[in-house]
Structures are given as C-alpha cells and as structure tokens.
Amino acid sequence: MSPDLDVAVVGAGMAGLTTAHELRRAGLQVRVFEEQDHVGGRMHSFRQDGYTIDEGAEQISEQGYRATWELLARLGVPDHDVPRIGKSVGVWRGGRAHPGVADPSAVLTGAGLSPRARFDLARLLAWTGAHRRDFDADHPERTPARALTVREFARRYHSDVHDYLLQPVAGSFFGWDTARSAAAPMLSLLLAVGPAAGWRTYRDGMDLLARRLAEGLDVVTGTAVHEVVTEEGSVRLRVGDDTVTARSAVLCVPAPVAARLHANAPADELPFLSACTFTPSLKVSCLLDRPLAPESRKPLYVLLTPDAEDDVLSAIIVDHAKHPGRAPAGRGLLTLMADARRIPDLLNAPERQTVDRLVRAAGRYVPGLETAATRHFVHAFTHGLPEATPDALRRRARFMARPARPVEYAGDWVMLRPASEGAVRSGALAASRVLSRLRPPRPAARTRPATRPTEENVS
Q1: Domain extent listing, the chain
Q2: Given this chain, do its domains 5-51+204-277+389-438 and 83-200+278-386 carry the same CATH topology?
Q3: Domain 83-200+278-386 carries which CATH code?
C-alpha cells in the first residue's frame, strides 16, 4: 500500500514552511500539519483595532540573513515591505536611558558602560574582529569561545561588559540565563547581524514571510500530530484521530516536542535532542491612546533593562517606532518583555496579575503608561528560544553527521541559532536531507565503446 504523502511536515513555523516550500519546489507531495489555528509560530502577528501586534520575533537584519533574503526575493517581496527600523537600542543605568548599545560608537559614547569598561569593550571588539572568520553562525561549536557560558566568557573583561551589555542583550533578545547559555552562538549571531542601523522589520507584521510561504502550500491548521513512528523506510503519523503515512517526515517543532513525538528515534539522535533545552518567553503588548516611549536623547526602538537594574522586565520595545504602521495614527504600541527569572511564576499566574506586574514595572521608564494603555495582550511561549547550552554545543557535531533518515528535524535549535534565519536555514538543510533519500539518483552517463571505422559508421 503506497503512502498518503511524500513528506509530512509537522509545524508551520518558519522552519516548517521553509522545509515544505523547498520540497514542493522539488516536485514532492507535501502537507504541513499545524496544531495552532494560524501559521508563523513564534513569527506570528495578529491585528486588533488597527494595531499590528507581533507575538514573538521582532526584527531581521540586512546582514547575516542570507537565506531569508533569498526566500523574500524568490517570493517577490519588495524591499519597501522590509523597511529599516532606524532607531537606537538603549540600556537603562543610573536613572536614565543610554542609547547606542548595538552601535560601534559605543566604545566612545559609553552606551551605559563605565570608562574602564569601554576599554574592555574595545578589547572584546578587537578580539572578535581578529577571529571573525572563526565565528561561523552555522557551526557555533567550532569557535574560539569553545563551550564557555556567556558569564564565563565575560570574566576576562570588566564586570560592566557582562552586567550592562552581554547580560541585557542575552536576557532580552534570547531570554537566556548567562550562567547556562554558551557564548559562542550569541557572539556568532551578533557578528553576523551587525549593528542596529541595519536591522529591519516587516511592514505588515513579522508574519509576512510565513503568510507568503503558506499561500503556495498544503497547510492544515488546528490539527495536532500526537506521534511519529519510523517503519521500514517510511513514517506513520497519528494525526488527530487518523493515521497518515508518508515516505518521510520532518519535525519542525522545538527539540523537547520532537523528542516526545518521535516514538522510536534512533539512539544516536537522543543526546542532542535532550541537550537542546528551551527558555520560556512572555511579553505583554500595551495598546496606547498616544505614542509614549522611554525618554532618551535619541529615539529608541528597544530599551534594555539589565538584571542589575530590574528584576521584572528585560526590555521595552517601542513598536510604533519599529514601524509607524504598527499602531493607528496618533496612538502607540509598546511591548513589555518579562525578565527570565520571573517567567516561570508568571506563566501560571492570572493574565490580569501578569499585566499589572509588568505595567507597574514599566511605569518607571515610561511615565503615564498605566493611564495611556487601553488594552493589553499577554503572549507566552513555553518553548520560547533554544537555550544553546554548552552541552548542546558539544553534542551538535555528532548529530549533524548522522545519516539521512525517514524522520528529519528542523528549527532554530538545530542550528543553535536563536533567530528566524536559523529556522529558515535549518528548513533548507532538512529539505536537502529528505531529497537525498527520496529523489532518485541521476543515471550515470553511458560511455560508448570504442569502434573501428567501418563503412556503416563513417559518414
């Protein structure tokens, strides 16, 4: 009995949609199963009363997002649909915002660092510059940072470099505990994406690329996959109350979910799957009746609030500064990012309590926020971003060297690159591994035997 599909893709985030897109281009019959009622995963956006609200990811970059830009070009997305943000990233210290955190001029302006720490920042920039070729975002396990955690790596520099630069960046953009996550993936990613001047957003919401990819695919939303089993070179999936068979399956879900779904995963895959832990994420979107923002000498897109200054928030994102279309004219939209240390408790708290706690904390940086907010939305992901621990870093090379199999994996955790580009690149990689199994090999060119000239073969 022939399988129902060539390939079943589990998960309609950026990894799953990229995988399906590449396999569909190769002529295979592909279906994507998504448990949620929408596509995009952590790139999802929704629209409410004229606001466009990004639930997860916030930006891409002109640099370090080659696979993403190739997809955008292939789908015909014009450049003006991916505009530059053009605003600064600031850090809070000493009762005020210091802009320029992701700017090379931070060595001169300070960006919240003490004079001694600026000298050490210059040392850090010189060291990463000298080793730039050794920082490959596709192979973070090979960098000269080895398997040091962010905190361990930072010990060679002034404490401010950790407390007012590395920790707030890791804590806000990645949701990481610097004592648990490895420095190599973070440094590789920061070197790849470059300064904030080159950061961009999607004009109509961060799910723009996901929506465009889904338009050309067979995507079934609101449908959970409960189990995936490898059987004699094919795959059986338990989907809702039905069974679906496929020649191959790609699990484009967080590693802990993939490990649970794949009932008979090969033993050599399990160590990396187990090591790829995730941090939860939680944020509150505040719909404002006027465009408030933290006070700063330069307009801010993000204000980082370090652990040394705040134990409730990790950052405030000014969405109407990210792109004016995020809020109706004359109104504003802010996103309050919860501190990773508080998220486990907040995940189980009533939404009203979560909103009150984060809004009260944000009032310190944005006076008038409590009275300006007309509505709030809480966005929480149990599996927010891959934690990229030293253990995962050490185990990645062996996982990546495994042979192509009926069940493959995709997600930013595969690349240990906590960004949508990591998801896109992993999707393309998973598609190539599937095709290496399912696409028949090209026949070898026949070599005609040498013959002596005769009357019959001489023209």
Answers
A1: 5-51+204-277+389-438, 83-200+278-386
A2: yes
A3: 3.50.50.60
**Residue 105: what pLDDT?**
77
Sign of CA dihedral 322, 167, 416, 384: negative
The Cα–Cα gap between 54 and 335 comes to 9
Mean pLDDT by 10 residues, the chain (459 residues): 93 98 97 98 96 94 96 97 96 96 80 93 94 93 96 97 97 96 96 93 97 97 98 95 97 98 98 97 98 95 97 98 97 98 94 97 97 97 96 98 98 97 98 92 46 34
Nearest-angstrom CA–CA distance, 26 and 115: 56
Report d(CA 436, CA 10) in Å as an integer: 20
CA distance 428 to 41: 17
Question: String of b and e for 87-125 (b: at least 16 CB within 10 Å)?
Answer: bbbbbbbeeebbbbbbbeebbeebbbbeeebbebbeebe
Name the fold adopted by 5-51+204-277+389-438. Answer: FAD/NAD(P)-binding domain (3.50.50)
Predicted pLDDT of residue 457: 36
Q: What is the 3-state secondary structure (H, E, C) of the chain?
A: CCCCEEEEEECCCHHHHHHHHHHHHCCCCEEEECCCCCCCHHHCEEEECCEEEECCCCCEECCCCHHHHHHHHHCCCCHHHCCECCCEEEEEECCEEEECCCCCCHHHHCCCCCHHHHHHHHHHHHHHHHCHHHCCCCCHHHCCCCCCEHHHHHCCCCHHHHHHHHHHHHHHHHCCCCCCCEHHHHHHHHHHHCCHHHEECCCCCCCHHHHHHHHCCCEECCCCEEEEEEECCEEEEEECCEEEEEEEEEECCCHHHHHHHECCCCHHHHHHHHHCCEEEEEEEEEEECCCCCCCCCCCEEEEECCCCCCCCEEEEEEHHHHCHHHCCCCCEEEEEEECCCCHHHHHCCCHHHHHHHHHHHHCCCCCCHHHHEEEEEEEEEEEEEECCCHHHHHHHHHHHCCCCCCEEECCHHHHCCCCHHHHHHHHHHHHHHHHHHHCCCCCCCCCCCCCCCCCCCCC
List residues bridging with 371 in a β-sheet.
none
User: How crowded is residue 363: how many other Cβ atoms within 10 Å of its Cβ?
Assistant: 13
Pick the closest to residue 386 from 422, 344, 341, 418 (CA basis): 418
| pTM score | 0.93
φ, ψ of residue 169 to 5 degrees: the values are -65, -50
Give the count of beta carbons closer than 10 Å to the beta carbon of residue 391. 18
